[in-house]
Amino acid sequence: MALYENLLVFAAILLGMSALRLIRRRDPSQRLYTLLVVGELVLAAAAIVREDRFLGAVAVCLCGLTVGLPWLLERAARQIFAAGYPRWAVRLTGLRALLMPGAGLARQQQILAGFSLLDRRGPAAALAHFRALLAEAEDTAELAMLHEQIVAMLLYDLRWSEAAAHYESQFQPNYAALRPALALGMLRAYGELGRMNDADRLLRALEDGPLGQEPGAGDLLGQARLTFLAYAGASATVDAALTGEHGKILGASPASAALLRATAAACSGDETRARALIQQIEAMPRRLRGRDDRTPAAARALLGHLARSAAPDPALDEQALRVALRVREQLSRGRPPRRAEGVLVTSLLIVAMAGSFLAALWQGRAGVGLLYAGAFTPELWRSGSWGRLLTAPFVHADLLGLLLDAYSIWLSGHVFERIQGRGRMGLIALGGAAAGLWATGRIDPEPALMLGGGNAMAVAVLVATLWTLVPARTPGIGPAVRRSLVITLLLLLGAQLLSCVPGDSVLRSTPLALGAAALVGSMVAIVLPPVLPRLFARALDLLLVAAVGVTGVAAYRVAQEDPIGFALAHREARPAERGAVLVLPQSFERVGAAGERRHVLLPVYQGWIDAQALRGGALVQVLVVEGPASAGSSALFRVDPGLLRELVVREDDTVSAEARTLLDAAGPWSTYTLQRNGEAVARVIERPLTPAGPTVVLVAAPPLAFEQAPSLYARLVADAQRG
User: Fold this and answer.
1) Rounded to an integer, what distance in angstroms lies between the CA atom of residue 241 and that of residue 226?
2) Which of 22-36, 79-93, 209-223, 673-687 tops mean pLDDT?
3) Cα–Cα dist 165/163, whole Å
């Protein structure tokens, strides 16, 4: 497919997914934007059906402006906001709102403006802004969000009593347990106000709630426990928990750790030590404080009640002892087994697939030209081209196949790589695809069958992820989440199985390849436990690095090969037809009946068709027509007179010099293009074997298909002989 067709198909898919998501949300504030996206989807569909380039260009541009670019702006705004630049985040969000009319983003823009005011003019201006928004709001969810922001601003300004009063007047006591950042702030507020019973109640709710069941929330729970212990005056426990490696286990920055220790010292009555720690905080360079820009202000506020020490309270001592035991238990377990941060391998696999597809598109690779990109055939592998076992998984002939494989790997990789680690993710992906292609090369009876291995790679990862989601292997995943993931992955697995149904115009793996890939994924997922010793996990990572290196060597070797020269050297004579003998590569299959539609551009006719080109998205056929060539007309019109109603002949002899030399040496020949609605759909080369015929005709659709192997296709016509 050309770049335009790929962009149009991608835009239609993106618009369809966006429309489905908007319809499922049923948000009244987004009705206008939903209608806009649905209208663009209809426009893209009409452009595809009618083959109208103008409508298609309009649909692609509108999709980019109203769906693609807003998505990028949203991601950028989040990153910039997290980096501490709210003003730029507000500007990007405003641009996004302009590109998404009727999407209900005005209120979101106003809320983000409050954070910009906090950055420019301080918490008082931000509070006034949020209170003004509160007076205009009517939606319950929006009211709750605004009240939460008001509490956060009061906590940021160290106005503890006002924050506690506003929180308790608007929310139930344990509401903060569902908002981790708010919970930490309220624990500090209760500690500053001396309301340790309320702090203990909130901490218990935090531990017993959803956060307490989340394996990755250990850092936050540890900081919440230490905050309680600091205000309880448990100085020794806080110091022990924040010393050396323990502080790293609990995820505390140097500034926050020093503030907790100073608070614990102050609440235990050790004024001298508290002052020394506060001086350390004020002397810390900004790079050590990180994002804790309010830590020095909190430390200075702590100076105001250094002389205050809590009165003995047996109940508080009991509460502190319980929390201290929890902290010691957490520290004794050490840092949880380190999972892969992010999905690096998953992302790299998808980038490699997309990069290979774009490179092939940029170089005009299609049909047999995909062999240069690294596609797999059993005959090339048997002749020593082992590198194609590792390069073929990244070769795709169509955008839909690429999107299906990429989405399958992306969704399953987000689960598998985070749980099992990068090493196993990469080894299953590469090993599963290579095993599938190897099995096909060993057993498949079609030596010239051209294959890609992207869906074999996707199946290996999908099957491994499904085994990982078995309750006995991952008991920490909730039933609802597990059910949703399994159903989605099974649907994707079914789509992958359907995509390998034998066909002509798809570059996919065979059922045998998918079965071998699934076997590899199952073996690795079942044999190895989810949690491995660190040394063994490191060995898997090193093995993956070695596999990546071998893949690089494989890509280099494949780039040095000449698959078209191999096809030329391994041709064989076919039975005589209409008085002509053709010498063809093994990839050419016999077509016994004319008129069958195996390609969108042209029907096929009795003769020979290049199966490799067909699987790569092109149509190349050789046929013998009785009678001589006709000047100004096409021999195809004698085979199929109906083509006269839709195609016209245009003189076009722009073939490569190499092909022209080969054809000139064989005798008289001619070439032209067939056009439909002003667009060239095929290149035809004709060569009469005698003045009275027969005529050998080679048809390549689209014309670019001939340029993938001009020396091969020209030689097929030039070497034809009378039988």
Assistant:
1) 8
2) 673-687
3) 6
